[in-house]
Amino acid sequence: INFHAWQNSASCLFTDRSVPGAEALAGSFGNVFNIMEDDLKGCLHSRVLETGRPAALVETHGQCRIEPEAVARVRQGIWNTMVTMGMLEGPLELPRPMFAAGGEHLIRAPKAGLFIPLKALEQVTRAGELLGYLLDVETGDRTDIVSPVDGAIWLIARNGPKADVVLQGMQAYADQGDLIALIKEITPLRKVQ
User: Fold this and answer.
1) Which of 14, 64, 65, 118 is deepest in the core (most CB within 10 A)?
2) How many Cα atoms occupy the beta-carbon half-sphere of 39 within 13 Å?
3) Between β-strands 179-188 and 99-108, what pairing exists: parallel, antiparallel or unpaired?
4) What is the mean pLDDT of residues 130-151?
5) What is the pLDDT of residues 114-138, one digit of tens each?
6) How much of the chain, in percent, has pLDDT values that exceed 70?
7) How far apart are CA 65 and CA 6, in angstroms?
8) How far apart are alpha carbons 122 and 96 in whole angstroms?
9) Distance of CA 125 to CAs 7, 13, 67, 85, 183, Å?
10) Residue 108 CA to chain centroid, in angstroms?
11) Other residues' Cβ atoms within 10 Å of the Cβ of residue 112
12) pLDDT exceeds cutoff 70 at 171
């Protein structure tokens, strides 16, 4: 398992389901999002996958800081993987639903304003559900932003203590056309028993 930390988007596990044992690894790690067709050639896990052995790359959210939730999730994921591979004995703890991530749907600001999110990273959403709203800073008018599809939130602009104003596209203020959310289509990932 190769670990990285990226921007304020959802944590994700990358592997290749065609390699024996890779799908079981993904199903036991416990990450919400799983990309099952690996195209990250050149990374350490890809080299292992090329030998026919199961491997994965786990990207955690929280670039430029360590988030306790992400550390706990990785710790549990390592435990689950070792149990699945027969290296340890014990129960698997899979605290939430896991998904194979599919197509992306970008949601851009229809006009300028302060984006107020009402959903969080990795939450499942349905088409038509309110994701948040844009507040016009001059008039106070509110423009609702709804999900165009069923899926889960991969990225959403935020404000408050978890906002990362260093990274472009993650600020809560949006100009017309700025990316404010990204929804991934999802299908349930089979859990390892």
Assistant:
1) 14
2) 2
3) antiparallel
4) 93
5) 888 888 878 889 999 999 999 998 9
6) 78
7) 10
8) 10
9) 21, 20, 24, 33, 8
10) 19
11) 15
12) no
Which residues are CB-contacts of 152 (< 8 A; sequence separation ≥ 6)?
Answer: 10, 32, 33, 99, 101, 122, 123, 124, 125, 183, 184, 186
Q: Are 170 and 7 in contact (CB under 8 A)?
A: yes
Residue 61 · residue 182 · CB < 8 Å: no
pLDDT at residue 43 greater than cutoff 70: yes
What are the φ/ψ torsions at residue 50 (nearest 5 degrees)?
-65, -20
Q: For residue 145, which phi and psi values (nearest 5 degrees)? A: -115, 120
State residue 58's pLDDT score. Answer: 80
Within 8 A by CB and 6+ apart from 104, the residues are: 154, 182, 183, 184, 185
| Tokens found for residue 99 | 């998904």
Its pTM stands at 0.69
Confidence tier at 14 by pLDDT (50, 70, 90): confident
Distance CA 22, CA 170 (A): 32
